[in-house]
Structure formats: structure tokens, C-alpha cells
């Protein structure tokens, strides 16, 4: 059975920026409150004519160019998102077409903030099955489309962005090491978008009731995220006979700086072992992990041979952790 390794990374954040000071003019909040409670300074927001597939294609093209391959070389395209261009066709179909990935198959993967980790897990297993040589995993979300900019409890948190990683077969001991993913639907009510699906289709009433926006019980999500981020990282490391000191870098989902530091502290990780870039992007849902990976590389904090732990908790609830040996 072949292994799977990450061979390229592409990222894209739309040029528009919404700062905390901009938000001060929109809702009852302050730069100080947002920074202290979340760690966020600004987030990127897509222009009105831009949709998730546009962000995804930009990130995907960069990854393909980095590896010097064409869309036709891809066997599968997985788009992790909770903000598809439309319910169907899938955003994966739209992206596949624009990349010219003729002959590839693919699908959208809905796991909210754990989406990219579930995509990596799925992509790695497609490669390891021996049936796929090149799988492109994309995390892309245009959260600004489903955020209520009159709700200060959610609108300060989210931003738009995309990232893509190319997965290819690996030699023994390279790349993918393992995963621990878990869903817990009992937490579904704490973070959701109630309308727009088959339970509550779009009606004048659903729109008037602002039900097509993210609704969240922030305190409940916060508590669960801190606990599960720690427990799942710990359990995955235990499973592989590793300890936190073996980890070169924890690349966590960026939902709240306090969630990351609390989990890292419980794991006993030093500041050098974690990457935080929530200040510049906010929570871009499925895109946070590749965007943070990009920053780690740019800062010289991620090198070939490093042991990387990816971890996320998201709506659902969904929990995901992956261990990889970084290979380029
Ligand atoms: C949303 C979150 C930042 C709120 O921070 P918190 O410290 O838990 O704050 P609380 O929810 O306890 O609210 C404290 C007060 O601040 C207020 N508040 C909420 N948002 C505010 C804002 N943007 N500006 C100013 N005050 C705000 C609340 O209304 C509340 O006021 P009250 O005590 O008068 O009712 C935090 O709960 C969080 O990050 N939760 C996880 C969210 C998340 O990560 N979601 C995505 C998961 S992938």
C-alpha cells in the first residue's frame, strides 16, 4: 500500500479587508473587545460578485502551478465548504470544469471548520488505495455570505478565503501518519444555519426572520472546542506512541486565539510549536488550515521532515486531527 504526501499548497484571500474599526461602525463593539476576546484584527471579505468556487479556483491554480502540473493530471477534486456557490451542482464540479480537470471525479465535503482535515483524511486514503495518483483537496468558504452583520456575536469572527493541497503517493515513512476524526451531532444546535435546506426552505418568512444566517451559542462552542481540541490531539499522539514534544508544529483551526492557546497549554506545547494567524484572517472555516500552513512556510517554521499536527473543531460538532510528516 503506498503512502500519501502533500506536494503543493496554494492559497487565496480576496483583497477586500474588513477591520475591527470598520465593524465598530456597523455594530455595538470595539476593536479592544474583539482583539482581547478573539485575537482578530481584520478579515478578508469577497466582493459581491465573487463566490466560493472563484476563491477555490485561485488557490487550486497556485497549487497546480507550484507542482508544474495541469488540471488534466488530477484524478479527484474534493472541495470542503459550507458555503457552496449553490446547493447543486457541487462546487467541486464547478472547480473541476474551470481547472480543465477532465476525467477527474470529486465532491463537496461538508464538515464546517473540520472540513479541510476531513478532506485531507479522505484524499490520503484515495491515494493509499493505489487507485489515485493526484488528489486536490480544497478548503474554501465565503462566510460573509451567511453572516448576519447586525449580530455582533458572530459577525466579528468570520472571514473569506481558500487553500488547496495536492496529495500524491509517498514512500514508506513519508507523509500521512494517521488521523482521529469524530462527529457529535448532539451539539448541532449550538452552531448552525437554520434555513435554506429541506427542513426550512427559503420563504419570505425565513428571510425576514434572518434564518439564512449563522446562529451560534458562542460560550457552548468555546467550551466544547477547547476540550475536544486538547483531547483529540492527545489521543492521536497516544495512538502513535508520540508525545507533544515530538510535534514540530501544531497547525490548528483558527476560530479564536483563546481556544488555540488553551488547548496548546493543556498539551504542554510551546509558542514555537503553534501557528496563529487569526489576527489577519479571522475564522475562514475550511480555509484556516491551509492559510496557516502557508504562513508557517513563509515564516520558515515548517520544513521537510517536520512532524505536523493539524487539528480542528467545528459545527456539527465535528472534530478532526491529522498527523503528517511534511515533505517539501
Ligand atoms: C463568540 C465569543 C468570542 C464570545 O466571547 P465570550 O468571551 O464567550 O463572550 P460571551 O459570549 O460570554 O459574551 C460576553 C458579553 O460580550 C458581549 N459580546 C458578544 N459579542 C460582542 C462583540 N462583538 N462586541 C462586544 N461585546 C460582545 C455579549 O453580548 C455578552 O454581553 P452580556 O454579558 O451583556 O450578555 C466566544 O464565545 C467564542 O469565540 N466562541 C466560539 C465561537 C467559535 O469559535 N465559533 C466557530 C467554531 S469553529
What do you see in this structure?
The protein is of the alpha/beta class. The chain has 2 domains: 3-173, Thiolase/Chalcone synthase (Peroxisomal Thiolase, Chain A, domain 1, 3-Layer(aba) Sandwich), CATH 3.40.47.10; 177-325, Thiolase/Chalcone synthase (Peroxisomal Thiolase, Chain A, domain 1, 3-Layer(aba) Sandwich). The chain is built from 11 helices and 13 strands. The chain is globular and about 55 Å long. The two termini are 21 Å apart. The model has no long low-confidence stretch (mean pLDDT 97).
List the helices and strands and how they pair.
Elements: E1 3-12, E2 17-19, H1 20-24, H2 31-38, E3 42-44, H3 52-67, E4 76-80, H4 91-99, E5 105-109, H5 115-128, E6 135-142, H6 152-155, E7 160-170, E8 176-183, E9 191-192, H7 204-208, E10 215-216, H8 218-239, E11 249-252, H9 257-267, H10 278-281, H11 288-298, E12 307-314, E13 318-325
Helix pairs in contact: 3-4, 8-9
